[in-house]
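Dear colleague,

Following up on yesterday's call, I've attached the two folding results inline so they're easy to grep. Please treat them as preliminary; we haven't cross-checked anything against experimental data yet. The first protein's sequence and structure tokens come first.
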Amino acid sequence: MMFNKNFEYYLSLRYEIVLKPEADGWSASIPELPGCIGAGDTIAEALEMLQDAKHSWMEASLLKDLPIPEPSNNYSDSHNG
């Protein structure tokens, strides 16, 4: 992938994650990345699906040359997102 350096940079940023209990499990989302949502039977599954969604969201945005917002929180200097 030509955008690999930018892709890895954006994946390393730490975005706020919102977890919500649902009738059939959990949902997880990143509010700063519209439409970036994961769901699962457990919190761990929802977070794993969210990581997959984040990967796809950023890949699609970079391929389409769309802007990717950086986190507005104070955690963006750590690698664990």
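Below is the second protein, in the same order (sequence, then structure):
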Amino acid sequence: MIDNADNPPAVAEKRYINWVALAAGICLLGEIAIMSRYKPSLTQPPPISVLLLSLLTLFLGAGSLLYRLNRRQYWFTGRAIGVISMLLGMIIFSVQSLGLHKDREVLLEKQLKIVAGACVTYARSHLGRYPPNLAALLETGLIKPAYLSDPTNVREPLVLPSDWRTIKPAILIHAINANSDFRYVGQDLRLPAGAVAGGKMPPAFSRIIILYSNEQQASSAGELAFADGHIKYVQIGGMPQTLYASNAARKKLGLPPMTFSKGISRTDSGGPSATVPAAK
């Protein structure tokens, strides 16, 4: 007879529930529940609770990987639910953020198109002369102050005094220059007589930039408004060429060149270069 006294039967290793992973799963469910009730939009951003639950899901999911590190755990109530919750939480929050950013880009394009179109309308009702500044568009009622704020940035939107319609033009121009998110560089343009009467826009006007974001640089992509009223998103690699084409068209019209950093620069016969004041 074989003596099994020295070889006791193997005892199954105890399994553990990963409570940190379960907490991450609960946070994920809470995030989904809140998002199903509050659909975020440009006028109604997601509640702060969604951000907090997203962060908790991320940290708890990561923490579940370390919880009882050397202990055997159940498959689903172990680390798996923590990892799944962490990944889903990041994906849901990222998709939501990208969706809101896309909505802001669409709104930015719409605003630029309205302002560019207002410039053309102003020119056709002022003997072909483009507005001298953005304040002129406000004073004539062609645009609203909200159109001068870039919805894709995180800064406060342009807020003018409640009596902006009655304040002095110089004060209004200063307020816009100090707070607007856009630069306007179309003040030197003038439509030919045929275009003033509603005829076809000159081909050069489709290349001349008149409005762009205050943060725009030749090394970055961005939305640009052109003198014929159209809007174009220019990729990083195409921005220098677009600026060059705009200045080439301006030169043919006898206008000074422009740069994104300084607006329009003129060289006086008796002095150094000067920068024409433009919207910030």
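For the second protein, one point worth flagging: Residues 76-124 form the longest helix (49 residues).

Best wishes,
A.L.
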